[in-house]
Structures are given as structure tokens and as C-alpha cells.
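Researcher: Please predict.
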Amino acid sequence: MSKLIWIVGAIALIAVAGCAALLARGNVEQPPYSSAALDGDFELRDYPELAVAEVTTTGERWDAVRSGFGPLAGYIFAKEREGDKIAMTAPVTQTRQDGGDWVVRFIMPSQYTLDTLPRPAGSTVRLDTLPPRRMASVKFSGVATDELIAEQETRLLAWMTARDLAPAGTPTYAYYNDPFTPGFLRRNEVLVPVAR
């Protein structure tokens, strides 16, 4: 009987966590795009110009995104600058640069432009715009380990090759959920810019 109670309790806990994750996701703005093609987990997207806050970090992928998150969170929550807080958006993105550094970005809510965003207090956080671009993407769930990301990146590049889509830059990794969301409910993506 106690085993049955444990199983029912675990199922209830998973259901509550799932509902909380879905509700939280519904309240967070995501960048707009138009879909040029949809093929299961794969999508070809056209993004408009986007305002971003970003930091450059070093180290292994997971350590780099964690060290980039802190200063960006401090910026949007007005911990080290004057002015109002900025709403959190999703995803947090991470792109490897030439030389091995990482750029970690928060995409700013759509009501902001570079002219209307509050200025960062120091030099760690930079404000920039990403130009309009076409991106190929693959969506997947799970805890975004290096192995899982590499597997999905390989799948995406094979999908692009089969459709004569040429990469125009390095992949971006996108994380939509907080670390407390169960792995099977997490949304992650690999995005690769596509040559026009």
C-alpha cells in the first residue's frame, strides 16, 4: 500500500511541476518570428531585428552560460543600475565566438529599442541589436548536456544539407526554462543562421 501511495504522490508531483512549467512559459515573452518551413522538430524561421543585452564569457559551455546569466539578471532586475526592472524573456541564448569565447544573451522585450533601454551600470553587460536573419532550428527536450546538444546539432546540419541550406555562421544554443524544470518538460533549441 505504501508503494502505491508513493507512486501516486510522484505522479501528482510531476503533474504539478508540469502545470507550473507550462504556466510560467506562457507568461514569458519570446522573440517573434515567421515560419518559412516546419518539418517535425525542425523549422526554418525568419526573425526581425532584435534588441539584446549580452555578455562575453569564457570556459566550458555550461560554466560559460551560468557565469553570463548573473550579470544579465542583475541588469534586467535593476540591481546595479537605476531605473525600472525589465521583464524576463525566453530563451537565454549562447553562441561560441572565434577564439573560443561565448556570447550569452537575453533578448529584450519587444517594447524596447536600443534608445529606450536603460544603460548598463558597468562594462560587463552590452546592449546591441541582432539584424534580421533566417535561422534553421531544431527543438528538443531534456537536460541540455554537451552530448545532447552535439547530437541535435548534427541532426540539424544533416537536415539543412538535405535541403540545400548553407550555414552562414556558428550555432546558437537556446534554453527556455529555469534549472528547476524537470528535464522532460524543458525546451531547448539549436539554431544555425542560413545563407540567403
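Model: The domain at 2-193 is CATH 3.20.80.10 (Multidrug-efflux Transporter 1 Regulator Bmrr; Chain A).
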